[in-house]
Specification:
Elements (H helix, E strand, L loop, with lengths): L5 H11 L1 E3 L1 H7 L5 E5 L3 H4 L3 E2 L3 E2 L5 H5 L15 E5 L4 H13 L4 E4 L2 H7 L4 E2 L1
Parallel strand pairs: 1-6, 2-4, 2-5, 5-6
Antiparallel strand pairs: 3-7
Helix pairs in contact: 1-5
């Protein structure tokens, strides 16, 4: 038996991180001090993504945010507000918690994820 299941981990993450809705995310999109971060896998991103977003799959997230690693993406350490999203909001919540645990500030995630973004007419690429 699991000590903590996926739902337990999600509940803990959601209690500790900032969650924004699609409308708030749409309002932040395109602002110079905001970076949208797609934590989905490459195969998902191939079917479209938030316009202008940076791809940092959840499995490599820690390495892409850490300036001390060769996988670091400079835009992810520019001190901007990080808006994470995934397919529907679960993985991005867990990813936001991980980043908070790493000491990265000004991180939130989008409830409803890319599916909600598309349903609400958010700009996409790909």
């Amino acid at each position: 038996m699991l000590k903590k299941g996926a739902n337990d981990l999600l509940a803990e993450a959601n209690a500790q991180i900032e969650t924004i809705n699609i409308e708030e995310a749409l309002g932040l999109h395109g602002q110079a001090d905001v970076v949208f971060v797609d934590v989905r896998e490459q195969v998902e991103r191939a079917n479209g993504f938030v316009a202008g977003s940076v791809h940092a799959p959840r499995g490599m997230l820690e390495f892409m945010f850490d300036p001390e690693t060769p996988m670091h993406i400079a835009e992810l350490s520019a001190g901007k507000r990080m808006v994470l999203y995934c397919g529907s909001g679960g993985r991005s919540a867990l990813a936001a918690r991980t980043l908070a645990d790493m000491g990265i500030e000004n991180v939130c995630h989008v409830a409803g994820g890319f599916a909600g973004w598309v349903q609400n007419g958010g700009p996409t690429e790909g």
